[in-house]
Design goal:
single chain, alpha/beta, twelve-stranded mixed sheet, elongated
Amino acid sequence: MGNSYAGQLRTTRFEEVLHNSIEASLRSNTVVPRPVFSQLYLETEQPLAHDGRTENDDEDDEDGSESNSPPIPYQMKPPPEGCCTTDGFCQAGRDLRLSSLASNPLEVPPGFMLVGIKYPSLPETLLVCAVDCRFLPDERGRNALLGFSGNCIGCGEKGFRYFTEFSNHINLKLSTQPKKQKHLKYHLCRNNHGMLVKGAPICWRGHDGRMRQMASSLSEGHVTSDEQPPNLASHTTGSYTAGSHVDPVGLPQIADVPHSLTNGNHAVPSITQPRLNQSAPGRPSVTGPHANAGPPKKRHKGWSPESSAKSLPERTVKTPPFSSALSTLSMSSAVTKGTRSGTATPLSSSQGSSTPLSPPGLSVTVPDQLLHTCRLQPVIFKGHGPLPQLTGNIGEVLVSSLLQSCYLSSQTLPRVYQHYGPSPIQPLSTEMQILLTVYYLVQLGPDQVPLIEDLEQIFMRSWRESHLSEIRQYQQPQTAATQGRHYGIETPSTLPGLPQHLCLPPQSQQPLTPRQLPWLAQLAASSCGEGVVVLGEHIRSLAQGLQQTFSRLMEGQLENTNYVVIIVTATGQETQSCVVITGKHQCRALAESIYSPKEGLKEIDQQLSTGVAQELIHFCNSLGQDGDMDSILDSATVDSNEPSPLSSSQESAEDRSLKSTHSPKDTHSPKNSLTQCSKDSPSPKERASSPKDTCSEYSVEWREVRPIQLAVARKLLSHVCAIADSSTQNLDLGSFDRVSFLILVPPSEVTFQQTVLHLWSSGVLQELGSLDPECVSQQDAEHYVVKMDQSAQARIDNIIQEAHSNSYTLYILVHDHAHWDISSASYNSSDSGLGLVDQLLNSRLVRDAPNILILHVTSFPFTLQTQYTRISPYNEIHWPSAFSNDVDLYHERTRYFGVSELLESTRSGSSLPLMRYDSSFESMASALEERFPKLHSAVIRTTVLIQHYCVALMAASGRLSGSHNLHKHTSVETLEIVQSLLTAAQQCPAHHGHMVLLRIPSLALAAWAHRRLSRVRRQLGLEESFEIILGNPNQALNIGQTFTDQIKTWLKIQDSDWVPRTYLELEALPCILILSGAEPLGESLPRSLKYCDLRVISCSYLQRTTLEQELGLAAYLVRAETRPPHNPSPGSDLLESDAEKLSSTDNEEEEAQENGDSPLSSSQQLNSCPDSGALDPFSAQSTTSPNVQKGTVYTMQSPSQSQTQFQSQTSSQSFPYPQPAPPHQTQPQVQSYSQAQPISQLQPQPQFQSQNQPLSQSNSQPYTQTLLQHQSHSQMQTPNPQTQPLPHAQSRRQHSKSTSSGSLSPRASSPHLSCSWARGVSRPPSVLLPRALHDIITASDSSGLPRCTSFLPHMSVAWASSFRPLLSKMMTCTEQSLYYRQWTVPRSYHMDSSNRTEGRSDNFHPRRLLLSGPPQVGKTGAYLHFLGILSRMLIRLMEVDIYDEEDINYSAHVEGVQYHPPNAPWPNPDIMGTMPFDYTIHDPKYDDISAVYCPGYRPSAEGNPVRQEDVYLRRRTSRIKLSKYAAYNTYHHCEQCHQYLGFNPRYQMYESTLHAFTFTHLLLGEEIQLYFIIPKSKEHYFSFSQPGGQLESMRLPLTSDWSPDSIKSPIFTPTTGRHEHGLFNLYHAMDGASHLHILVVKEYEMAVYKKYWPNHIMLVLPTVFNGAGIGAAHFLIKELSYHNLELERSRRLEGGGPAGDVWPFIILADDSCVMWNAVDLDAHNGPTEHAVSLKQVLQHMEAFPDLAHYGLCGIRKWSSRGLTGHSQREPFSRGHLHDFLLLNVDRSQNIQYDKNRFTCHDVDFTLRLHSAGLLVCRFNSFSVMKKQIAIGGYRTFIIKTKMTDVPTSVGPSQYICAPDSKHLFLATPAQLLLEKYLQHTSQKLFPLSTKNYTHPVLSVDCYLNLGPEVTVCFVSSRPHSVNISTTGLLFSGLLLCFVDSFVTPGFLKKFTFLKVKVSILLPPVCLPVGATLCVISADRSSLRQTVGRLELEEEWRFRLSDEFQTANAKEDRPLFFLTGKHI
């Protein structure tokens, strides 16, 4: 109903769309309206007014006809006679005025609300009425039904259905047609005193002229400032320019149009010409990027859903907010002649305001020469009420709607607070807002700029505290549905600088009246002197106040005033206000914030190119009394013969004069500088390579992946697996066999090369198999990285095409630095370089490709976490914290040092913080900003900074006479930076030094700075002391050849063409890096970075991303395990200045207690050199801010290194394998061979010290002297054990720098190190900031978090509401993500803004991941490792563990007879009959069972090793890649398998029926009922009775039938416990051939098998078989198949066909058969095997012409050793068959499987089958591979007691017991107990048989496993059976198991047994040498009957103690057996 809660069906939305559709179809003549449901579910929701006109438009042209004709006058219906017509009364004469009804109790029907009606003739009066809520819009301006329903509150008349009728009733005297949008203006609510007052304006989608309702839309995130507004005042052909300005959120933006100046007044141009993109002539077009603006006004002619689609083009680059996280600051220049020549476009007469135009008489003239006189450009903040028209010199005044936007958003409450309960909550009153604003301005410092975030939070705090009880009451039932989760955030208790009595007004406080306001505001302002001036008393209008302000400005009365607050509280009108900014600093900051970053850089370029800045440069060059800087440089003389104290090679003045002063290339010319070196001093190349000048401290360690990176990589992998495992089937990992990837990086050449370097050295390409490991070059790696510029289009198109053509390859698109380009492609031109990510990654082709996965990687994920994000919160991976309560979770030796740690260093108070500002620089820059008001501050600040650097170089070089006078012309900070840069290289014999980062965003300024510094360096003769590098993102890195040779020498690189391409490779190079570009683009910096100079970055764009990515340049990982000790020693460095010693602190001793790895003193370590700090700023920190996670790295000790070295630290580089290197391996290091040099020789020499250094020269800032490798992405490295000079590829891999995980120097803490680089690599760099940013960043908000965290996340998003909670310090990364997902919305030019139009609020892309982590923490190493392990996992998914065992029990003597030729396709039955049957078992899975006696076989002496019970889990396996003919388990589901697995479109999934089948068999003893589960799609394999549908039989083909695409034999697979892992998917194995596959399952597993295999036929075993073994399943399959064969023959006879032709074969297949192979005899290297389909194997066997002669056929088991024994040459053999059988159920009719057997049932069956005379044949040309499946199967039986269900350890001796004894009974089948007992204890039963092959145990009619040490001789008692010859064979035992009538006493007397010998000399004692008998029966009575019937007592002696039973209870039917000895 407009206020429906989230998740409920909004029926009004449907009604609204239905209305719109009907109206559109009635009115539109040309456009077909969109369908209702398309509008309802697919259409965007327009945030702004659909006609885009102001209130003035409404009044002038309310009817809006198609033409330009004047509106038709409205004729009011005359009132009935006798009715009241008085204004303010209804026709019944009742008073409706709000002033009269304010205190009256009014009855409001349910569903209605009180509304204030604007009355034309009484402008200050509101009339009260009750209106149905459904016909009013919600706070977002939506969901209002067309029409009207209202009641008169005066007379009580109800049911007015038309607003026209109602307006007549309440006497609205109008000249135009009444419209509810125009006259229903305000919600009415009760205040704290119960008075009815005006509330929030009704949000009519932009129809309210003041647009106050627009702020309410912020609360729900549907209106943002970037939606381009209509042209409010005029519509001309003027187009937008680069300087057009944008109003803030909540206010419509104004199209900038040219102005006409008439007599000094700003005239409004007439509507002469429609805009090019208007919808219709004379009509303004709809705003925003979306198509529909509905619903229209009633009778709005010509409206259709498409008619408003042609919108104004939105600007490519939006104006960013100044000091505002709320919105875009709109500064509207008022005339073309401004200081921004050519960039600022004037506004229309409304001055950028959407307020009504002021009356013509109320205009304000801006005085001429305002800027020249006051040296500032005032900024007017619109507040309450309409701003008067400005005329005159309006180009020198700026107007901003920022404050007005804040007011409006703070007054527009969410509906839950407005209309819930009897007394709705009021927003802050206008008066309170103004007073709070004054208090806020008063507490601002003189240099502070107002932050709208602060003011907004003040408003929110005040409002919450004043309505605390109501908010709590309303939030309880409402918050969950409407406001979302608040994360338990408490409202802040204090606000900076705000009096508590105003911030937190108590409930009883009296409301602030307009009369009190001016006095209270002036009272508040009086506390700050002239800083804030309040014009309130005697001010009757804003125009008067502004005129006074301008007059005072011109007269100089406001020289010390920063803010003028104008308040108008005239009687009878609303309070009005505005704020004029008059502070010079504030005006400049606000004026510059008008530009977007791109426009600001253009303005700087223009000022430099036009020469405007020349005066400033000349001014800065002057050093006052000390002369001009250029002249001082020109007069500098350098003695070419005498070495300077700072450089060993100098140029003569004449040589220098030959060089150009401006070409950067000349500064890099190595040949000149080398040839002009002093003869006495070696060149840098010689110098660094000579033995005495090498540095033993310098080392580049090998890297391996850090544990935390490995954890993140695995976390990424688990998320990918979770996507694959979900039921959505969005990612089928099982269908991919390889990984390919493309890494997308920002368009920075250094970032590109850096990523290539990481990738190349990581080993990922080798792992992925993309390239040969031996020939992987860096150029090969470049194919996998692409810069996101115009060239990216073709690369990504190629990968999309590849993805579509290679469906078995998984493509990973890694979008690194993902926060960089989030612009919408539709809002950016193709040549702008923006919007490429949206165009490419969000395209439908990428989105819909099932094999493309997108990984966004960023340090600032909140740019992608909005209400319309494409990334599921479940697909976010946040970098974990390495420490929890100071416990190292990942056992790393480093800690992450990031933004929060920098902030901690500013709060320690014990020493100079790492992050600070330069007060000297700030004061000089401020003075020049006042002197040059027209210049951009970036130009001024950069000029001053470069001037400071130049002067510092001159002062520190020592080459200028009188250089001590230069110190006062630079700052202490700059001088210290330069001194450290110059002296560091002199302390190291190899001249290792530091990097100084100079961040200058403007490319033009950076180029100028580079030229200027290079010239000064050359003139000072310092060209070989340090390098100056211009870091342009568009250009490759370029450094001089001299320094390149130096780096190559350090890194021992042999390649002559090698040049550094990344900043990482500048390790230890003394240099100044000028990093330019609007923002850092992911460039990693080396660990030698010591100073991060950010003094000239912009202070105008205060978003969280902007600030944190600049600070992220200084983030890195630092050592955590060692801290400097405190042990005084005299060996301190002489270069230390006294001032630095003063900075030591009291907590050094406690730090020293924690450091145990160096005996050296803290004075040495801390105060020994200019680059050591006195306090470790991060040593005492145990926790970090939750929003900045920590990361650490591993270290590894190399035992080969000297003990004076510290442990070598590994970085974030990963090895190709995750295992760490063994500790005994040496860690190779690139280091000089003077390592063994005595420490004393490494001490710096005293002559380098200047004893009288002034304080300004000393390096007195201990925090700033530390540095740490600083890089943005981690890198992976492969090991190489070489330490000698390496060839290029190896050395390049070795020296490549680590990324943010930072390999640290092993000697970083030692004070004796002469190399300052080695001392500095364990400290983070110092950061210098502008003071404005420093003050903002170091301040905390009320939640304890840094202020910058509460800023707007990014300029492309907007806050959804002012009524949001603050971020909490206790929030996790996940909670922060949810916070931003709820409270931010993307602006229209954000690439996710279009995601809302696609029909779902949670329209997440299923294959999109987000990896976030703080800057420089090692994310690149993590995702590269992820790619590696993902590839390995996919390979592992494509591989299976195959049993790979050599056949056993082959005798050394192989029979030499060749029965068949090797290439014979089929066996000859006659020949097969002559082949001897091989009784020996060769299957290696049976190497622990009894051998079957075979006369010609002699076992080997050692025999087979005895294995444990779970041996099949440990059998030998090989990992084999799956072929395309493999069988699969349930985890495989490719597109081809869908139909096979049950996704047939003709049948619904899981649609199957249960059919009963009655079956009788003599051995079963009773009729049993089987069940078939038959899917609908498989019913054609069965025949059913007609009618009735009773299952009759399974259809069988005829023997003569043959089809190339079908298999005739039904396949039966018995299975248990493997519903997920059983290989039942035979689609690929059958190569698409039709086949009948039946799973044979136990009854209790039927449901789960049916769930996983819905399209498979299942035969459900009877209940009695639930505890049975594999023998029962095979028995039932075989007997059922024969029964079915008989049924099919009967059915064929009834049909008139031949009965004998029915196919009699079935296939018995194990559920682990995965692949099949065939032998290729034609191979050149002998017989080889290749994979073939199961279809090929079966069709070959089924095509055997004489197959019917065979009872059983099979194939051999695969082994990697190939064919063994006799089968090497013989293609067919007779012997035991296993696992995969082709059974002739017809010929084997009389031989059954033993239904009671659990083990060796196939051996027993084969022996009985052979003895019956049936042919058994094994096809040796085929083999089957069996997969190792450790889960389920028929071999997993648990023996447990009946007392408990828990498996217990029960020994084999406990499996039996004496009959009728008290024994622990077991809950295990009796047959299994018996088999296990015989297997493990047969050596006790048959002692003479143990290891006695020549005297086997005679087993009659069955084979039982008696253990591997006993040999069994199988004989059959059946007549005419085939048995071995036993003549002369003495048996050591006799085994009779369930003997039948065929066994007779005569049969047994054929065999001879070992007898007992009786000694005559000794007493008659029986010697235990006779044979043993074991008789087994089902019960005791049958046991006795068997003994009697077979007359066993004649030859065998029995004792009562020799009778046993299995340990089963009586109800479990134990088996009994009797043992005896032969007499």
